[in-house]
Amino acid sequence: MHPNSTSPRTLLAVLALVLPLLVACGGAASTAPSGGTIGAQPPQAPVSSVGAVLPAATAAPAAAAPTAGIAAERADAAAPMAAIGGAPTSLPVPGVPQPTPAPGLPTQQYNALRAGEVDDNADFDSYLAYLNRSAGIRARPADVSERYLLRVNDAAGRPVLDARVRIFDGEQQVFEGRTYAGGKTVFFPRVAGVSGNDQQLRVLVEKGNSTVEGTLARGQASASTFVLRDAQAAPATPRLDVLFLLDATGSMGDEIAQIQQTIASIAERIDASQPRPELRFALVAYRDRGDAYVTQVHDFTPDVAQFRETLLATSAGGGGDDPESLNEALHAAVAGVHWADNAVRLTFLVADAPPHLDYPNDYDYVQEARNAVAQGIKVYTIAASNSGDEAEYVLRQIAQQTLAHFIFLTYQPGQNSGAPGETTVHQVDPQSFTVERLDDLVVQVVQRELAAAQGAA
Q1: Contact 295/330 with Cβ under 8 angstroms?
Q2: Which CATH number do you get for residue 208?
Q3: 75 falls within a domain
């Protein structure tokens, strides 16, 4: 046969190999969604060029939960991600049914994003040591070295969700929080600007018609527990609000489709759980000043399909410099949507860059974290690829101050992007976390929060 000639059978074989590759490499272009825009008008907050150099703690931390086990490789380490809206291919999370693939969605395949998780409140001493090691990081000052956990139970000893906790220094209110799942909130006197000379603070706890008053003695060695005898511990049917706060700048372009696909999978898996909570989703996408938008706010909806469409319409663009408008974005997530009453309220912040600290008339992420505590909103932060030291520092601040966890994508040894793997370059103890698929991990977080709201240990 002539060397340049090709038989029909050979052509068919080549096409059979090439066409699937072409399809896999394709993908429809995304368009930016419509949504509300939040403007920024508050005064400039101070910036610390030396991070939080902490004095010795004046209060012993509350009894800490054990850290996660030694990092272990799961059997599904290289399992490919299912199609957007389809069931994931890794081992299912117990008790969470897997959804069936939704029609009409793209079928592009990706490697599953993998992630680790640390709880800086559970290993508080290590977290304080990390803050001191990172004293040169540019960040908002927030001295969290003095910390008090306040628990609220009903007469039967069950944790009370969404109780209002206020703390007074004399007649001045210095703290307000709503109890999270598990009946807890957290108070940092030095972040609140309370004088070190004031050793006795008044605590007022309320829910419905039930009220209890007590005292917080500074320097005490354990958490304080308050009993609301007639309060409803939690609704009979759990209520769950989940907001995704997504950095949609150009630096996220390399993984925005994977993030979208992972979030879509998470939403459908939570929606399929039994018993199903009263579930709502919201999305806040953000970029930076000078981009097409700073924030796009999509308020809560119980319609998972509608939420997925909104999510998949979000595209990456803009940015330019490393910091982004995270201050304004966090304000939009806390104050720009309608959170449900008596609910488990969770935000998952996905970002790869720190906030701008040089903008005039901007919000302050430390104050927004305090506002989140006042509304009983936990902010779980997820560090995306190429997250640097400043991004890690800020994301850990936000998570720690809202009693949430710091989550980070994991990659091959020594890498902070590229193929998913089992390691991280972030400043966390490699023995303190395990590596999971990101969607598995987030679904497990939600399950833990719902279980805690119902009184599970």
Answers
A1: no
A2: 2.60.40.1120
A3: no
Model confidence pLDDT, tens digit, residues 433-453 = 999 999 999 999 999 999 999
Q: Which pLDDT value is given to residue 88?
A: 36
Report, as an integer, the average pLDDT of 93-109. 40
Measured distance CA(189)–CA(192) in Å, rounded: 5
Looking at the structure of the chain, the number of domains it has is 2
Return d(Cα 266, Cα 21) in angstroms, integer.
27
55 falls within a domain: no
288 and 400 share a domain?
yes
Same domain, 421 and 317: yes
- Which residues, 6 or more positions from 21, have their beta carbon under 8 angstroms from its beta carbon? none
Strand partners, 445: none
Contacts 24+ apart (CB under 8 A), 205-208: 205/152, 205/163, 205/164, 205/165, 205/166, 206/163, 206/164, 206/166, 207/152, 207/160, 207/162, 207/163, 207/164, 207/231, 207/232, 208/232
Instruction: Kindly state the tokens that stand for 59.
Output: 């209060």
Q: Mention every residue, 6+ apart, whose C-beta is less than 8 A from residue 327.
A: 40, 355, 356, 359, 362, 363, 364, 365, 368
Range of the domain at 298: 80-141+235-453
403: three-class secondary structure by DSSP = coil
